[in-house]
Specification:
This protein has about 160 residues and is α+β, with helices and mostly antiparallel strands. The chain is built from 2 helices and 4 strands; from the N terminus they run ααββββ. About 35% of the residues lie in helices and about 25% in strands.
Amino acid sequence: MAEFGPTLFIVFVMLLFPLIALGTLALRYSLFAYAARLAASAGAKCTTFKIDANPPRDCSAVNIASAIANQTVSGFSGITLSKIDCYIVTSPLGAGAVQRQTTPLAIAADTNTGSYAFEVVLRGQVSPLITNPNSWFFNIPGLSAPITTSVSADAFVENTQGLTL
């Protein structure tokens, strides 16, 4: 019976609390990645890339992706969104390099020579379960301080004619 106290100490302090903290960090990171996936899939369905076609019903891919990413992230604690980047990713069907651009296409998309995807890159911070506001020891990202990270997701564009707008 004398070893019951040290056993509880080892189980709760040394094993359980760090696992809960790690699990919380992993959950928040996966929710951050989920926000990027939702934004990319919604933006890929839009009829235009940068210019709103018929607001508020038919907004551009960039505006819809920004709104959905902000709305999704704001629903969870411990996630801070700092920047949203949206790209058109052009992949040639034959040989050639993949191109990423933040501006609309200069010429109309040709689906016979390439495929087009809408990519969303979110940058922000994911906080651990317990943050240390006072710097008694070192601030270790993921353990006592937030982790600065970025996540990306992409989806094939459904309306390639709108990539020039």
